[in-house]
Amino acid sequence: MKTKFTFFKNPNHLIKTIAIWKLNKRIIPGVMGLMMLICSIKTNAQTRLVVPNTDEGSAFIGPFGNAARQLQFIIDDTLLTTLVGKNLTTISFRLPASTTDAWPPNALTMSSFEIYLSNSVEPADRQLDFPANVVGPQTKVRLGSLPIPAGALTVGSNPNQFSFKIPFTSLWKYNGGNLLIEIRHSGTGISSRSVHAASTSSAGYGTLYSALWQSTGAVLQGNFIYVEITAENVLGENSVKIGGNSVVYPNPVKDMLSIKSDKEFTSYSIYNMAGQMLNSEKISGSQPINVARLPTGQFILKLTDKNGNTEVTQFIKK
């Protein structure tokens, strides 16, 4: 039997439905579990935070160097209050306002681009020693190669836009405290590109944020690269809103999961039931999603439209 996901337009309808099902639990065993498979949720646009909240005109090569590098960005918790309790999903960097051409001139792929998140020491206590700055466990939230399309980092505004987002491959919930972002990459192998940064002499450096890096030599202090952090509500929170009119089918699905919607979705992510991201790709409109490589089981699908709004539903892979 094929089941379609229904998006409840009116939350009251869902509440009444749950009440009826609760009254009939003895008649319909397991119906409360089934309810989770036929309702979908819609979340508001993602939270975006830029650190630091200034506009100094310095630069630093860092994440897009031509050779392998390791970098740490340490951010004081007072700058991160809007992210508390949310899943961090992407980071991005921007070109200095003085840059005249978008980058890269041609598409390239960095063979390895890993990102680790953890809590950290106070920015003032930062040492030129990567492990010494980590507080608690580090979580690898991104691994694998990083394709960068031609012209992904754009120019033409002051400051320039955070036009190229680097998505995480697993969820990480920020629960407060100083944040440490660590990047380990293989280098572009072709060319380096400086990005917008705050210098080591800026007013907040060493108190609100600090940074360090290493290539082939000693660990050094570095300018703090302007970073945009994107976060979203944790799946299943009370803050999500029921709504929408999209349908995914067939369900259960074997190979191709189709989408019926009046919205223009631009990307999707698939999570297991523990909230770990398994796959994330760009799509166009209602383009079918290939789920053939997923193991048998139940999964969460998040669809993101061109305005950054998301719809979340569940499906079964057979």
From TrEMBL:
<dbReference type="Pfam" id="PF18962">
    <property type="entry name" value="Por_Secre_tail"/>
</dbReference>
<protein>
    <submittedName>
        <fullName>T9SS type A sorting domain-containing protein</fullName>
    </submittedName>
</protein>
<feature type="domain" description="Secretion system C-terminal sorting">
    <location>
        <begin position="248"/>
        <end position="311"/>
    </location>
</feature>
<dbReference type="InterPro" id="IPR026444">
    <property type="entry name" value="Secre_tail"/>
</dbReference>
<keyword id="KW-0732">Signal</keyword>
